[in-house]
Write a structure and sequence with these properties.
496 residues, alpha/beta, Immunoglobulin-like, TIM Barrel, four-stranded antiparallel sheet, 24% strand
Length: 496
């Protein structure tokens, strides 16, 4: 994330197909109606929405697949072997339970269980044998299925930001237009996605971080795949920030040279190819992060100038974009790694300290000079347009003074010669305390609602915004909820 003065650095660390229902017809100022719709009608029932297949061993069957939230269903497992002391273990969002129904057949045998108590997301089943007394048993087979939301009732618009729309269902076809979103400092999990889905509604964005992108990786972590499946199951559009391991930001050493990253680009391709997809729903891939800061574009020995850093990062962006587009999947959308609005003029490699002074817009120009046409390779532009009273300085001023920072992406787009390109603001928002500013959480909530009504939901370039951050102990001053999920005022007021 970008912190305030031009060139100053943060030390971001690891924290923790049926028809879908329609929400209310009008959002704030009538823009991009979604979770904040006004005068909504009744939302329709949910469908499977073309969700990606999940792993399932032979023998499982379900009375509903996908399952529906709030509706019990039957899960069965069949096998020729007459197992004894059997059980069906179920886990997933909510408090799912399995209740014994009975066994039928004389080979093959079919064991059936009633399933209830589940919320939206991915349900995991394990059929076990020999589970008796203190013996936990032995797993025979496993399976996963989706559980999707049922229909809800649209909200009635009121004052301020309008009423809350119904939850709708898991929509079929492409996602609804919705600019709302939320950002994490990890890959996220089902509980995070539940909080985000309740806040942003169907078609909203969620920025997650995959922080182990390095040479030699051939696939995605299981937790990454689970997170993406859970996001799609909640009608969220994933924005994936591809990042090196938390303890190693020397990306320039991961290429064939500082201006060639073909091998690392193949890793990008491997990971994205291995993730679940959803029919007609996009997946945005952000190539690295804030490469105009020394600790994000680390080096060993000597120093780097801003122009050198820009050319090297542009080389990574070029190679990664080419590799990702070679998948031939129109759902995969490539983003540049958003820059810190205020960057450095040079970096000392030994200390990772830098001399401030080069704005993001200037750095973008250096990128285009170093690798001409690099911005022709991205599908949309990622920006960290934090509220600020100046360009690269005066961060987290009150909303009324923060226009230059909130719309800084306009300067960035002008610098790359693409003033009409669509923008995803993958970090933004207010902190309750920084340098000369100290705000109550209610004030932060009010600033945020004003920014939504007057900038984020009205500017023609903006696709979506994913504020920094949902929750994290290290970044609680920016958080929208407590670690236990209890909302702070900004969450409550935006959702109202």
């Amino acid at each position: 994330m970008a912190l305030p003065a031009c060139g100053s650095e943060s030390s971001e660390a690891q924290g923790n197909a049926g028809a879908g229902g329609n929400a209310g017809t009008a959002g704030i100022n009538g823009i991009d109606g979604g979770q904040w719709g006004g005068n909504g009608g009744t939302a329709g029932g949910g469908g499977s929405g073309g969700l990606a297949p999940l792993p399932c061993d032979p023998g499982f069957s379900f009375s509903e697949d996908p399952a529906t939230v709030g509706k019990s269903f039957t899960a069965s497992y069949s096998n020729d072997t007459g197992f004894t002391y059997v059980d069906l273990e179920v886990s997933g969002p909510g408090a799912p339970t399995a209740s014994w129904i009975g066994v039928t057949g004389q080979g093959p045998y079919t064991w059936s269980y009633g399933i209830s108590g589940h919320d939206a997301g991915v349900l995991s089943f394990s059929f076990v044998k020999d589970k008796n007394g203190g013996n936990p048993g032995t797993a025979v087979a496993s399976c996963q299925i989706y559980a999707v939301g049922g229909g809800g009732t649209g909200g009635t618009g009121g004052g301020g930001t309008g009423g809350t729309s119904g939850s709708g269902g898991t929509t079929g076809g492409p996602p609804p237009v919705n600019r709302y979103g939320m950002g994490y400092v990890s890959e996220g999990n089902a509980a995070d996605h539940d909080l985000t889905a309740k806040l942003v509604g169907p078609g909203g964005y969620v920025t997650v971080i995959f922080a182990d992108i390095k040479p030699g990786r051939s696939n995605a972590e299981a937790s990454w795949k689970q997170s993406i499946a859970e996001a799609y199951a909640r009608d969220l559009i994933p924005v994936i920030r591809m990042a090196p391991p938390w303890g190693d930001r020397n990306v320039r050493a991961m290429g064939e040279s500082p201006t060639s990253y073909k091998g690392l680009a193949q890793v990008y391709k491997n990971v994205i190819a291995d993730l679940p997809k959803r029919d007609q729903w996009p997946m945005y891939v952000e190539v690295h992060n804030e490469a105009n800061l020394c600790y994000e574009w680390a080096c060993t020995g000597g120093s780097l100038s801003d122009k050198t850093m820009a050319k090297e990062y542009a080389s990574l962006l070029r190679d990664a974009a080419d590799a990702l587009h070679s998948l031939g999947d129109s759902r995969i959308k490539v983003l540049n790694g958003a820059l810190a609005p205020g960057g450095v003029t040079s970096c000392d490699c030994a200390t990772q300290n830098g001399a401030p002074g080069t704005l993001a817009a200037t750095f973008l120009g250096y990128m285009n000079d170093g690798v001409p046409g690099v911005f022709d390779k991205i599908d949309a532009f990622a920006s960290h347009s934090y509220p600020a009273k100046g360009e690269g300085w005066g961060f987290f001023a009150p909303y009324a003074e923060s226009g230059p920072g909130l719309t800084y992406f306009e300067k960035e787009l002008a610098a790359i010669g693409k003033p009409s390109m669509k923008v995803l603001i993958t970090e933004t928002g207010w902190t309750i305390q920084h340098e000369s500013y100290s705000w109550s959480r209610v004030q932060v909530a009010d600033f945020t609602v004003d920014a939504l009504k007057n900038v984020w939901l009205t500017h023609p370039n903006i696709l979506g915004i994913t504020p920094f951050i949902l929750r994290d102990s290290a970044w609680d001053k920016f958080a929208w909820t407590q670690l236990n999920g209890t909302p702070y005022p900004v969450y409550t007021k935006v959702r109202a």
